[in-house]
Structure formats: C-alpha cells, structure tokens
C-alpha cells in the first residue's frame, strides 16, 4: 500500500474511534457539557466508555476521560496500567485528564475538537508530550473536529436564555 493510502486508512480508523466518543458524549446527562471518551485496547476492542458527569455526580473530577480510564483499567487486567491502549475523546483534554492519561500509560490519544481555553494537549499546555516525562503517548488531534465542536455549540446555545 502507498504511504498516502495507508495514511488514509489510519485517518478513517481514527474517525471510527471518534465516532464512538461522540456516541458516548450523547449519553451525557442533559445538565453536563457533552464530552465523551472511549478506551480501546491494543487490538482495537472497546474496553470502556464514559460521558462527562460532573453535574450528574457532583464530582469535579468526573470528566469523561477520567471515568473511562477508571472503567477501562477495571476490565483491562493489568492493574491500573493501560499500556498499548488508545483513548479517544471528543475534546482536547484538560490538565487533569492529560495527567491522568499519561499516568495510565495510554499509548495513543485521539481527540476531536481543540479547546483553546483549557486544552492541555497543545493549546494552552502540552502536558502529554513534555520531554521531562518518561511516558509520552502518541497524539492525533482535530479528528472530526467540526462534528465534535457542533456537540458543544448545540449544548451552549441551548444554555443561553
Ligand atoms: Zn478533563
């Protein structure tokens, strides 16, 4: 396969992962900002998914990524480690989630929309690719960006009086 051909296939595969994260976001409580995250193992099998549930759980740490990482670790069978796994999330992770996914040793991060106000994977900071860290996941951002941003736009639009 040509380099262009394999790149196209990889992009399509990432879009499939983000579509799963979009589906996870759609399950968010109506009070919660719709962000969804899904963890896949090295073979591409889904381990866990979650939506942001800060309002639903009254928990400041209940971001989609943290909830999905916890659930994935519980079923993955290597303690807290998620080595070789991929995290797909609809929005660029914040500092907490970027830290959590790095600590979980996620191998690859794929995200949808960029978050210029709080993003910690390139926008405001780049926590996951800090060269001082031992573990640095591979990253791809901006996958199905407009679909992911549309979820948020719809939510915030409905919030306005
Ligand atoms: Zn977060």
From TrEMBL:
Coiled coil keyword on record: no
Q: Name its GO BP terms in alphabetical order.
A: tRNA wobble adenosine to inosine editing
Q: Which residues form the CMP/dCMP-type deaminase domain?
A: 11-124
Q: Which UniProt keywords apply?
A: Hydrolase, Metal-binding, tRNA processing, Zinc
Q: Which residues bind Zn(2+)?
A: 63, 94, 97
Q: Which PROSITE patterns does this entry report, sorted A to Z?
A: CYT_DCMP_DEAMINASES_1, CYT_DCMP_DEAMINASES_2
Active site, renumbered: 65
Q: Which Pfam families match?
A: dCMP_cyt_deam_1
Please report which protein family the annotation says this sequence is part of: Belongs to the cytidine and deoxycytidylate deaminase family. ADAT2 subfamily.
Role noted for this protein: Catalyzes the deamination of adenosine to inosine at the wobble position 34 of tRNA(Arg2).
In its UniProt entry, what is this protein called? tRNA-specific adenosine deaminase
Phylogenetic classification of the source organism:
Bacteria, Bacillati, Actinomycetota, Actinomycetes, Mycobacteriales
């Amino acid at each position: 396969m040509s380099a262009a051909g394999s790149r196209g296939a990889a992009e399509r595969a990432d879009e499939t992962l983000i579509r799963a994260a979009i589906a996870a976001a759609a399950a968010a409580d109506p009070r919660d900002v719709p962000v969804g995250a899904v963890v896949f193992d090295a073979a591409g099998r889904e381990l866990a998914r979650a939506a942001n549930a800060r309002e639903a759980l009254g928990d400041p740490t209940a971001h989609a990524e943290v909830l999905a990482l916890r659930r994935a670790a519980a079923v993955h069978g290597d303690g807290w480690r998620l080595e070789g796994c991929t995290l797909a999330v609809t929005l660029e992770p914040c500092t907490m989630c970027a830290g959590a996914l790095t600590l979980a040793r996620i191998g690859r991060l794929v995200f949808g929309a960029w978050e210029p106000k709080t993003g910690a994977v390139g926008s405001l900071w780049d926590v996951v690719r800090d060269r001082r860290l031992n573990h640095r996941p591979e990253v791809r951002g901006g996958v199905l960006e407009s679909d992911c941003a549309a979820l948020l736009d719809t939510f915030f639009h409905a919030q306005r009086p």
